[in-house]
Amino acid sequence: MSGTFVGMPAFPPPAHPAFPEAAHEAVNNPTLRGNLRHATHTIRAKRAKAVAEMSDWAELREAGKQIKDHTLRHLDRYLVQVEESVTAAGGIVHWAADADEANRIVTELVKETGESEVVKVKSMATQEIGLNEALEAEGIHAYETDLAELIVQLGKDRPSHILVPAIHRNRGEIRDIFAREMSEWGRPAPEGLTDTPAELADAARLHLREKFLRAKVGISGANFIVAETGTLVVVESEGNGRMCLTLPETLISVVGIEKIVPTWRDLEVFLQTLPRSSTAERMNPYTSMWTGTTDSETADGPQTFHLVLLDNGRTDTLADEVGRQALRCIRCSACLNVCPVYERAGGHAYGSVYPGPIGAILSPQLRGTASEIDASLPYASSLCGACYEVCPVAIDIPEVLVHLRERVVEGGPVTREGNKVVLKPAKGHAAERAAMRAARWAFARPGVLRTGQRLASRTRRFHPRTLPGPGSAWSGTRDLPPVPAEPFRDWWQRTQGGNGDKGAAK
User: Are 412 and 424 in contact, with CB atoms under 8 Å apart?
Assistant: First the structure.
């Protein structure tokens, strides 16, 4: 297993503006804001009710955290065990260091079957590496079968949510997309289609059924891989995923190396926390598990199974003692549904397949912070902490955001010069770095700090109410805090009768 250089982009960042610019455009779209507000508030209220039913939720949350941390600490051993278990069950394991290698492996596997189309289970890993585009470049058509992914694909759109990729669309927009685009991809939408959920679902069902019955190759991701048996697990709500996993003769699963759990017993925890945190259900309507291949053409399941284990920046993320906790993520989307920034900006502003709070810490680690969008993502948060409170595996997203902000400010992209990995100076942060260094120098010298505080208090009547130059963007929406009439050290010495420096230090 190999990775990329620490901090270097594992897959190309998109040609996308920085988050503040993209978010500014999004918040000026009242339809988008209305769609997001309605959907996120509905999901979050249902989730809170489902979680409240569990008297041991805190213990389950801690158990999930411990299982994930244990697995990541021993990931080398469990990866080898996965390969051995999958091979023993009749599957074939491939190792992909980056997106290009994963796309090349999958494309060649599909070509070997002689097929020119595949059906897909919803998979964030394949979206991360741009698999659909890579297949299309080789003349292979990939059909998304998850309802929301189908809407996104037909609408020539991009996902904007981890769980509900078409959350930014309302029913009227979906009806128009179906009526306009379905005929170009297969069976057309029924005449007179309305925007009622039942009719929209039925139109999607009829459109997809012919693809399920015709496809010989399926492509999936996985929510979990059980190391002790080589079993892959997909949880979903519609049943379309199960059709992709059981009908095709060949199944190719692209899975991030962090999706491993050691034993079957570990699934007990996540099959309780994942559905409640994502769809607010007590259990998923469809939990599909497959181990290796089937020997019979009439039995459910693939006759040929390939597992592509994807690194793509994950080992580099694992090397970061603070940032590695992002790899605990089980893709439930609870953090998106409570985030005040996501609720107003939407998923597209994040410029990544991973939007919201988890995307703000995961994408910069997988891709590096060299691009404008990735350098801005750690700042796409108010640090309110709501994301941490709802995370079922206790990822301290605010802690990682602050950690990544430090990385952005202290240094730019990591590049290779000969045999050395070099941290380049960050662009656009010289003033901030200079201010922080000046503050560090002053705080390390009590006499200088005391003199500065006294000078500030004596000149406070001349202090402006707004900051000049670039600082005006900050003070334009905030009140500058008033300077006290005297420093704390002087107040302490005057009122307590002791030494100001010694008293303040206690």
Answer: yes
